[in-house]
Amino acid sequence: MTEHRPLDPPASTTIATIANDVGVSIATVSKVLNGRTDVAPDTRARVEASLDRHRYQRRGRKPSGDGRIDLVFHEFDVGWAMEILRGVEAVTSEAGIRLAVSQLDGAHRPPARWLDVLLTDRPLGVLFVLCHLAEAQQMHLRRQGIPFVVVDTDSATSAAVPTVGSNNWNGGLLATRHLLELGHRRIALISGPPDVLCSRARAAGFQSAHDEAGVAVDRELVRYGGFLATAGHDHGLRLLRRPDRPTAIFAGSDIQAMGVLRAARQCGLRVPEDLSVIGYDNLPVSAWTDPALTTINQPLRDMAGIATQMLLGLARGIEPATSRIDLVTELVVRESTAPPAHLR
Amino acid sequence: MTEHRPLDPPASTTIATIANDVGVSIATVSKVLNGRTDVAPDTRARVEASLDRHRYQRRGRKPSGDGRIDLVFHEFDVGWAMEILRGVEAVTSEAGIRLAVSQLDGAHRPPARWLDVLLTDRPLGVLFVLCHLAEAQQMHLRRQGIPFVVVDTDSATSAAVPTVGSNNWNGGLLATRHLLELGHRRIALISGPPDVLCSRARAAGFQSAHDEAGVAVDRELVRYGGFLATAGHDHGLRLLRRPDRPTAIFAGSDIQAMGVLRAARQCGLRVPEDLSVIGYDNLPVSAWTDPALTTINQPLRDMAGIATQMLLGLARGIEPATSRIDLVTELVVRESTAPPAHLR
After folding, report:
1. Fewest Cβ atoms closer than 10 Å to its Cβ: which of A104, A260, B175, B184?
2. Cβ of A100 and B102 within 8 Å?
């Protein structure tokens, strides 16, 4: 299956190949590989360029860390991050491996300094949640033989990066089909930010379900926002105050759906009698809102557990059978959806 | 202030003192201190007994770890654990210190094996959340010069253990006063498990507020349960189906209060018109329930941040000014409380 691993170096690339290519000593190449600072910047740049050109990857090196993996969150958001942490910890504690946790304050790429700290203090591997490395940072980790896996709902990551996600298009399709089957014809979508691919995948599923049913989507009812409750509340109020208000709203997260429930109440609308609401994620809290949320189950703990197992395998030199796993999303019907008033 | 540090050894206790006391070589005492296994069990036991008797503590040893602290949770419960994690991470990331996370699956004491793993891989310090060490484990960590701090709502921890908590009695008092001032006279309490001291402290605050107002507490309305939504739901249904049902319920957590809200709805009671409900914790979700919860703010992030700063100080050899800090709890009034129906 080497054709699926385009970033692997030809087997013949050694430190000597690089030294020869750049015209420096093997010791100099070794210094660059080990992150030592006693190499002239210009020389370092030429060695790094050659390493990249030759797709050099340190092979068969035993992990020299302390039996730890690093879990890096985009941010500690409400609900989501705890589910991921539970899934990862179940695997690491079973394996007797220490788990270090950090977050990037909402950034999607770690700062340069972060990689320096990581390399002075080698983990067995790194798990990224909703964040990822720049191409140069990826090359750097590969050269050091530190494997990494991404947990992401974004299904467009490179095939070279092992990634565990879930099927967002399918989630969008299932939620929208459920509403259409109940008889709704004016359905609003509040998705996450448009620059996050999972938002667009869900919106595409929303469109596909309409196409199947031969129902036109009113573009006025498709909104993008954050995943927090405030976004659901703000968009919910604007949608529900329209004279041609929707009879159903499909939200981007369970927390966002709680914002929609509040907006409905402020507009004097009962859920589900006057308005159907669907969440996304199936967090524990979604069973306890009033009314309990119909939602799409995103198997966050399983995603995290599988990604951790993949990472521990890579740390032992075992390539995963496939580099991209999407877990199945499912509809969970509770109390917040019903046929629209005119059909009852 | 040596009188406040009863576990400090007399300055003259050295390894030689211990060796002399037990009648073994200095090398043997050193092996026991370093956790080596090549010491006869009987000899080890005698050395450890002497170390304990002399309250031996390794002094002035520089932390030899990798700049990491260990954060140990009782369990990853809903909401609470994430707030603590946020508070700790804010301090460790600022200090450039790695944060390792683990949980004890609901146990309140780490298993014996846990300490062995910790000692082979020294952290700068350990932060325990709602869990703690057995006395022998505490002595062991002290001898190794690894400081630890406890984040706990339980205000009865030993003065020798640095602990950050919050004032639960005050929380119970404030919540109950608020309900009494609104005119409620039949108020129910659903607290946490009775073997958790914070539950009893809040119940004592509940009683004190009644005493202040000259209102008798009906013992039938005082319940103990878990902190989860199901406990709130179960107790809520049982309380609200009584012919002499309470007009207000003070719950043990915001999540538990969500269970009470559901029970009220199932009994056809409106909140706050027919029933007032107060939560505890002031988690982010409490602002988004329907109705938004009146609750007691427990400053979880601040508690975690202060405990972490205390721990990092101890790792640098700085004794905290006081070993027990309780942060203030405050009433947050939202929509779930109102005067009882007969007063409106």
Report:
1. A104
2. no
How many domains in chain A?
A: 3
DSSP state of B67: S
- Tell me the DSSP string of A163-221: EEEE-HHHHHHHHHHHHHHHT--SEEEEES-TTSHHHHHHHHHHHHHHHHHT----GGG
Q: Give the sheet arrangement for strand B276-278, strand by strand.
A: B222-224, B187-191, B248-250, B276-278
| CA distances from residue B150 to A209, B99, B129, B165 in whole angstroms, order as listed | 52, 16, 6, 8
Q: A135 with A279, same domain?
A: no
Q: C-alpha distances in angstroms, A187 versus A21, A60, B168? A: 61, 54, 47
Domain that holds residue B264: 168-298+331-343
Quick: pLDDT tens for B1-41. 333 333 344 445 677 788 888 888 877 877 777 666 678 87
Q: Does residue A336 share a domain with residue A213? A: yes
The rounded distance, in Å, linking the Cα atoms of B67 and B341 is: 59
Q: Is residue B127 part of a domain?
A: yes
CATH number at residue A221: 3.40.50.2300
**Whether B98 and A103 lie within 8 Å, measured CB to CB:** no
On whether any CB of chain B is under 8 Å from the CB of A275, the answer is no
Average pLDDT over residues B163-187: 96
Distance of CA A315 to the CA centre of its chain: 21
Residue A63 covered by a domain: no
Q: Is A229 on the interface with B (CB under 8 A)?
A: yes
